[in-house]
Design brief:
Elements: H1 15-21, E1 31-38, E2 44-46, E3 54-57, H2 58-70, E4 75-81, H3 98-109, E5 114-119, E6 132-136, E7 141-145, H4 146-163, E8 167-170, H5 177-187, E9 196-201, H6 208-214, H7 234-246, E10 250-254, H8 260-269, E11 274-278, H9 280-292, H10 297-310, E12 315-318, H11 321-329
Parallel strand pairs: 1-3, 1-4, 1-12, 4-5, 5-8, 9-10, 10-11, 11-12
Antiparallel strand pairs: 2-3, 6-7
The structure holds ligand PBG.
Ligand PBG binds near residues 118, 122 and 207.
Length: about 325
């Protein structure tokens, strides 16, 4: 036998051959598109740090929803920017709140489009934290209370389900949130509504542009007492174990690009669907370089997405979803 003994290049000789042996692919059905809905009327405003992503008031939303469904995208993740904020985030669980109202309208326009509701309080609280804040006099610091926050989170989830949300996606990283929400949904008759848990959510600088978009930056302190330390991987297993035990239907890893090892770990460990959240700064960085002409944006985006699939993700939340859908069609 001649040298080299092993010729891996045989399976790369033509596009057809490469297609035949391809292990992973990104499809339209993998995509979830985040949409920001804001109060007021006549608002369609581009988010400065996220070119191509907009705030929509509800009256401007229909055209966007039509575009999304025409592209074949079958799921959106809804974020609300409310008119009023208070210490308890009451606009998050107001039956006529921005997310609830938007959900009802979207369900009229596009009944088959899956509405995933982000369930959190940070856009709705005046302090910008994801739960109830208590000032600890002794320690001279603000604590985010776990169990008191759960009650508000449950109310939020139930009101979102009542408005027609198809999936509840709790993102606030309080302990026990999956169990509390599951119970709340079941008691309210929404036992069929799945929970997509932000199981492994790191305290990440990659959320910067989102916080500008959602007006949800904490007014003091940071989220490090509830979101995870980027240096930890074993802790991700503990977080996911808890969510699985509490009845989560899908497990999310967030952010995505710097955390593909975590995705792979969860994929190998659990049989539940794994969700990758390709977050705001991951979008902004690629978009900025693309707009400068420094990179081939389409190629970079598709390579990143197939990387998530290879790492074990079943679905991807991404601000590139509309672009990807158009590319897959074209
Ligand atoms: C709400 C929430 C955040 C994101 C999704 N849900 C912000 C945060 O936790 O600070 C970030 C999404 C993104 O950056 O695209 N808690």
């Amino acid at each position: 036998m001649s040298f080299p003994l092993i010729r891996n290049r045989r399976l790369r000789t033509s596009q057809a051959m490469r297609n035949l042996v391809r292990e992973h692919a990104v499809t339209l059905y993998d995509l979830i598109y985040p949409i920001f809905v804001t109060h007021g009327t006549g608002v369609k405003e581009e988010i400065a740090s996220m070119p191509g992503v907009y705030h929509f008031s509800i009256d401007q939303l229909e055209a966007e929803i039509r575009e999304v469904t025409a592209l074949g995208i079958q799921a959106i993740l809804l974020f609300g920017v409310p008119e009023t904020k208070d210490s308890e985030g009451s606009s998050a669980y107001d039956p006529n709140g921005i997310v609830q109202e938007a959900t009802r309208r979207i369900k009229q326009w596009a009944p088959d489009l899956l509405v995933v509701a982000d369930t959190c309080l940070c856009q709705f609280t005046d302090h910008g934290h994801c739960g109830v804040v208590h000032f600890n006099e002794a320690k001279k610091r603000a604590d985010v209370l776990n169990d008191a926050s759960l009650e508000l989170l449950v109310k939020t989830a139930v009101s979102q389900a009542e408005a027609g949300a198809d999936v509840i996606a709790p993102s606030n990283m309080m302990d026990g949130f999956v169990y509390a929400i599951r119970q709340g949904l079941d008691e309210a008759g929404f036992e069929h509504v799945p929970i997509m848990s932000y199981s492994v959510k790191y305290a990440s600088a990659f959320y910067g542009p989102f916080r500008e978009a959602a007006h949800s930056a904490p007014q003091f302190g940071d989220r490090k007492t509830y979101q995870m330390d980027p240096a930890n991987a074993r802790e991700a297993v503990r977080e996911a174990d808890a969510d699985v035990a509490e009845g989560a239907d899908m497990l999310m890893v967030k952010p995505a690009m710097a955390y593909m090892d975590i995705m792979r770990m969860l994929r190998d460990r659990y049989d539940l669907p794994i969700v990758a959240y390709n977050v705001s700064a991951e979008y902004s960085m690629v978009k900025a370089a693309g707009l400068q002409g420094w990179i081939d944006e389409k190629a970079i985006v598709m390579e990143t997405m197939v990387g998530f699939k290879r790492a074990g993700a079943d679905m991807i939340i991404t601000y590139f979803a509309k672009d990807i859908a158009a590319w897959l069609k074209g």
